[in-house]
Amino acid sequence: MYHWPIIFLNLLLATTLAYATEQTSLGDEARMIQASGKKHHGSESLIRKMHPEFLLHKRDRTSREGVRTKKHSLKNCVYCHANKDKKTNQYYSVNKSGQFCSVCHQKVSVSIDCFACHRNTPSKGANNAQ
Amino acid sequence: MHNKLNRRDFIKTTSITSLSVATIASGITLTTFAQRKNPVTNAKRWGMLVDTNKLTETDIDSMVDACQKEQGWGGEKYSIGNQKPTWIRKLKVKDKATGKISNLPLMCQHCEHPPCVDVCPTNASMRREDGIVLVDKHLCIGCRYCMMACPYDARSFVHENLTEQKEHMPRGKGTVESCTLCVHKVDNGEQPACVVRVNSEAVIFGDLYDPNSKINQTLKKIQSTQIRADLNLNTGVRYSGI
Fold first, then answer.
1. What is the pLDDT of residues B19-36, one digit of tens each?
2. pTM to 2 decimals?
3. Is the distance from CB of B130 to CB of B83 less than 8 angstroms?
4. Is B167 close to A75, i.e. CB distance below 8 A?
5. Which residues of B touch A (CB under 8 A)?
6. Average pLDDT, stretch A97-126?
7. Spatial distance between the Cα atoms of B111 and B40, rounded to a whole number of angstroms
8. Which residues of A are less than 8 Å from B137 in CB distance?
9. Interface-testing mutation among B44, B122, B128, B138, with chain A (most A C-beta atoms within 10 A)
10. Distance of alpha carbon B127 from its chain centroid, rounded?
11. Are B158 and B85 a contacting pair, CB within 8 Å?
12. Which of A66, A94, A119, B72 is least surrounded, with the fewest CB atoms within 10 Å of its CB?
C-alpha cells in the first residue's frame, strides 16, 4: 500500500543526486556559462553521443591539415570542464575520478586514451574559451 | 587659405580614414582566419636557413633552450642517457684537412622525401602538404622504425609517463617525436621559437617557394648546402658556412 510514496521518494532522491553529481563535475567555466544562460555548443545529448566522432574528425583535420579552429577542440573541452580545488587553487585533472570525463566513462567502462598525451588541466593563463 | 576645419572637410577626412582602416583591418583578419580555417596546401614549402658563420655556440644553446621551453621537453625525470628526448641539438663538425670547426644546430630537416615516412607501418609519420614532417601520435605505435631510418638522428622516443604537457604539443609515453618546426605557431602566422630567440640574420625561416620571402631571396644569393645532400632527400632546412 505504501510502496508508491517510497518509489516516488527514491526517484526524487536519485534525480537530485544525479543532478548534484552533474553540477559538481561540470567544470567551473562551464557552470558559469550555464548560469549565464548562454549556449557554448550544441545540445548536450548530441555532444554526449557524438563527442568521440567530433574529436576524431577534428584531430585529423588539425594534425594533418593544420586546421586550428576552436570548434570541437579538446583544449577547449578541458578549459571549460575542469574544476578547481578551492583550497589549493589548483585544477583537478578532467579524467580524475569524479571529474567531468570520468563520471560517464567509469559508468560505461570506457577508458580514455586522450590524456596519455594531451594535457588534462587548463594551462596557466589559458583564456581560449570561444 | 584658412586652417579651420569646416564640417564638410571633417566628415570627409574622418570617413576616408575610417574606411581605409576598416578595409586594411578586415583584410588582415581575413588572411589570418583563412590560414587557420583552411587545410594547408603545397603552394608553400616551409624551410629554414642556418648560417653557421653568424651563429655562435651561445646562440645554438639558446635555440635548444627556446625549443625546450616552447615544446616542453627536457624535463623527463626517469629517462637516462640517450633515452632523453632531443628535438634539436648542438653539433660540432671539424674539417679534417683544415681543422676548421663549425657548430650547427641539428634538428628534423623536414625532407621532401622523408625516409621516416617511407618506413612507417601505420602512416603516423607523415609529411604535411606544406612540407612540415610530423608524427601523428594518434597513430604512432612506438615501433621506432622512423628513428632508425632518419639519417639525421632527429627523432626521439618518450620513455616515461608525462603530465603537464604544453597544450599545443601533446606528448606521451610510447610515441616518437621530433622538431615540428613549431607548426602550431606557423599555422598562426608566427615564426618558430628558436628563430624568434636567435632573432638575427643567422637563422631565417620562411616559405621556400615564395620569391618575395627573405629565405628564398637569400638562398638565391648565397652558397648553401643540405646536410647529406647525397641522399637526395631535398631537405627544408639548409645550411650555409659549412
1. 665 656 555 544 555 557
2. 0.81
3. no
4. yes
5. 36-40, 126, 128-130, 134, 136-138, 161-168, 170-175, 183-184, 187-188
6. 90
7. 17
8. 63, 117
9. B138
10. 13
11. yes
12. B72
Name the amino acid, one letter, at A19. Y
ipTM of the complex: 0.80
Contact status of A66 with chain B (Cβ, < 8 Å): yes
In DSSP terms, B239 is beta-bridged to B50, B225
Cβ–Cβ of A63/B136 closer than 8 Å?
A: yes
Cα–Cα dist A79/A46, whole Å: 20
> What ranges make up the beta strands (E) of B74-198?
88-94, 101-107, 125-127, 133-135, 156-157, 176-177
Q: Which residues contact B101 (CB under 8 A, 6 or more apart)?
A: B92, B93, B94, B95
The closest CB to that of B36, out of A64, A67, A123, belongs to A67
CATH of domain B46-240: 3.30.70.20
What is the reported pLDDT for A130? 39
Instruction: Write out the three cell numbers for B8.
Output: 564638410
Q: Is the pLDDT of residue A16 over 70?
A: no
Write down the pLDDT at residue B36.
78
Cell of A127: 583564456
**Owner of C-alpha cell 624535463:** B75
Test the B interface: residue of A64, A78, A92, A112 with most B CBs within 10 Å: A64
